[in-house]
Write a structure and sequence with these properties.
about 475 residues; alpha/beta; Fumarate Reductase Iron-sulfur Protein, Chain B, domain 2; FAD/NAD(P)-binding domain; 3 domains; five-stranded parallel beta sheet; about 35% helix; about 15% strand; globular
């Protein structure tokens, strides 16, 4: 296969018109020939900047080199030393702002497709039944991990590799956290990818108990005082949705993106074999501009709706990945930018009939450096709608913090934890991921889980 070193090997995808009507994975991934060709573009830098851009510090040049040589099993071993969820990360990680954003090849051409190569290796390992290596020496210390999302799974996997006896407590009936309830099937297949990666973590010796709500079923204090856990990691995520506080927001037909996606993803409302109710809507507006907004919009589209994204800033400020915005546009989703809702209009039966919006313009930059949107006087207009999905971010559920003595939280109800190792104000309790930062990315949560595992190991080694 001929390779232009300045250009990526193109990735195969489902045709936009076809995929807009199904929930099958959009990106089809590399085959072995394409992967080895793409890997051959890597410069194998001695001082690899890409590794510095990876929150879990995968030895990227080493695994890419093994792919180039056709040693896919060895490439898998290199990745698994650093990452518990490579098939997930290869699909949903924002590589363009992390490893690929620092790739030297990208200065004079296109960066190496590190994420797509990671996905290829992880998929190859799964298809060829390559399992992670087990720890030979067991320690007689028990660690409880709260939440089975990316932070919890990573922390649990790392601790199990060190020999600890680890149990994950998950509030929902199925493990995976945001990977199963938040990210749609067409971006992240649940059985083929997520369930298999969770099985790999369990193969390390990690136990998972579902339907356990910490703060109701039991508490952190009870886990430590009555059940003999020597340390606890809180990776419970940020599942509490935010709303705008505008008139009409409590009408029938207004959803949080969290609820809408959970109904479709975890409860399989998109599948006719399931009874989970969902309101597909005919005319849907999704308010927000992040990856979750794109996921909700693309889900509503596949359920048969005419969908518009409403976002108060311009396209340059959209927080969603460029790839997700590109896919959404290809599939026929409309974008109403520099637009902000002021009221949801309700019919006589209490259902959404439309939304009043105003046009915005960008003013001076705020503290974050982003230009603040300012209302254009006299620009008010109405959109005719039957469904509104609010995708304005999430914050942690206060249940754990309110039932745990001595656990400090900040004004946003996020748990206060030291950045280096996730140590909280309560002895033996560590935290990381969205429960600490508020809603962020899968890979940052994994990085926090990995750091906390190191902190817990150091704490228990001294105990």
């Amino acid at each position: 296969m001929e390779v232009d070193v300045l250009k990526r090997v193109p990735i195969r995808e489902q045709d936009p018109k076809v995929r807009a009507t199904n929930f099958d994975e959009v990106c089809l991934g590399y085959n072995a020939e394409e992967a080895t060709a793409e890997a051959s573009r890597c410069l194998n830098c001695k001082n690899a900047q890409c590794v510095k851009g990876c929150p879990v510090a995968i030895d990227i040049p080493a695994f890419v080199h093994e792919v180039k040589e056709g040693n896919f099993e060895e490439a898998s071993r290199v990745i698994s030393k650093a990452s518990a969820l490579p098939a997930v990360c290869g699909r949903v990680c924002p590589q363009e702002s992390q490893c690929e954003g620092k790739c030297i090849r990208g200065f004079k051409g296109e960066p190496v497709s590190i994420g797509k190569l990671e996905r290829f290796v992880a998929d190859w390992a799964r298809e060829n039944n390559i399992k992670p290596e087990l720890c030979k020496e067991k320690k007689d210390k028990k660690v409880a991990v709260i939440g089975s999302g990316p932070a919890g799974l990573t922390c649990a996997g790392e601790l199990a590799k060190m020999g600890y006896d680890v149990t994950i407590f998950e509030a929902l009936h199925e493990p995976g956290g945001v990977l199963v309830y938040g990210i749609p099937e067409f971006r992240l297949p649940k059985q083929k990818v997520v369930a298999e990666e969770i099985e790999n973590v369990k193969a390390l010796g990690v136990k998972i108990e579902t339907n356990v709500i910490i703060g109701k079923s039991t508490t952190i204090d009870e886990l430590m005082e009555d059940e003999g856990y020597d340390a606890v990691f809180i990776g419970s995520g940020a599942g509490l949705p935010r709303f705008m506080g505008i008139p009409g927001e409590t009408a029938n037909g207004v959803f949080s993106a969290n609820e809408y996606l959970t109904r479709s993803n975890l409860m399989k409302a998109f599948d006719e074999d399931y009874d989970t109710p969902i309101k597909p809507g005919k005319k849907v507006a999704v308010v927000g501009g992040g990856n979750v907004a794109m996921d909700a919009a693309r889900t509503a589209l596949r359920l048969g709706a005419d969908v518009t994204i409403v976002y108060r800033r311009s396209e340059e400020e959209l927080p969603a990945r460029v790839e997700e915005v590109h896919h959404a546009k290809e599939e026929g989703i409309k974008f109403n930018l520099l637009t902000n809702p002021t009221e949801i209009l309700v019919d006589e039966n209490g259902w959404v009939r439309g939304m009043t919006c105003v046009k915005m313009e960008l003013g001076e930059p705020d503290e974050s450096g982003r230009r603040s949107p300012v209302v254009i006087e006299g620009s008010e207009f109405e959109m005719e709608l039957d469904t509104v999905i609010m995708s304005l971010g999430t914050s942690p559920n206060p249940l754990i913090s309110s039932t745990t003595k001595g656990l400090e939280v900040n004004r946003r109800k996020c748990i206060v934890a030291e950045e280096e190792f996730g140590k909280t104000s309560k002895e033996g309790v560590y935290a990381g991921g969205d429960a600490v930062t508020g809603a962020a990315t899968v890979i940052l949560a994994m990085g926090a889980g990995k750091a906390a595992a190191k902190g817990i190991d150091a704490y228990l080694s001294e105990k």
